[in-house]
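Hey, quick one: can you model this chain's 3D structure?
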Amino acid sequence: SLLQEIAPLHSDIGNLNISQQTMVLFRVSHTTRVVSCKQCKVKLVRGELRVDKGQRGAFHAKCVFDSFAVWRRQDEDIQGSEDLIGWDDLPADDQAILQGHIDQYLARPSTTTTSHPTTSTPQAGSQGTKRPIVISDSESEPPTPPKSARLSPPLPVLPNLLEGVTIPTGPPRTYDECSVCLDPPVHPVTLPCTHIFCYLCAKGLTRQAGQLANCSLCRKDIPDGYLESAQVLAKASLDLNDTPPLLADEEEWQWFYEGRNGWWRFEERNNEELEENFSLGQKMFETMICGNLYMIDFQAMEQFQKGYPNRKRKIKRDSRTSSCKGVAGLQKRKWITSE
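Sure thing. Here's the predicted structure for all 339 residues.
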């Protein structure tokens, strides 16, 4: 039967030293030095009534009962004066204060008290010793309701910004594109790691402020002066014409930017972008050159890097037959005509 199963359990409990191992002892006294209350953090001054809760520290007489709502465990509260070590040493007025707190605590509607046996009467000298737990086999006690799971708030539903938008497929990728501009390489340059870039895009990789020059795909270093070597410049300029286009249409315009000792042509893609925005009457626009954002000012006929507005270069719109040093830093001596 159930009682036969419980009997060995009572025997095991009786063999434990409950008062020293599993139960919290409460000691009441007058404080002899200033300490902080563990509940309200206010100082207890000398001579003030205090209650020590096991190894958890000192409390005001009222605060120790408030702590049961936070640290409440079975058989770890005060049910009467017999649970307080040092009760008999207190003066009558302090006993009356503590008894009032005990009565208020036991009268709280939300307080669930611990069951104690009523078959024995506490004797002198047994103060502070907790009594064993009584296990009830009554089927009339209502079961403890299960804790309800905390539900996460529903995630917000984001609108579909692409609904009804037709995205063109675009040209198929060949996987030979420059990884900076994603276009077929213009004046291609092969880095020591064998990855291929546009000459201007590779030039931009070597001019990142505060960073070492390295390949944007594999992060291998680009040696200093690699793009200025004769071998690299010769391969990158293979697709340049040996002579200026003297037979070009007189009304065909070309954009140039000023160098140290002459003018350079803008690369073909940048040239088309400048001409388009100039034809639309734009006063200023933003474009990507050498992997950096540049501002083109058509009113002042200047260009400057967006992060360095004081470093400016002059630009001009002239005939394609105008003499120049080369294209975007790539120079061929046959381009330079004597005047």
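One thing worth noting: The radius of gyration is 45 Å.
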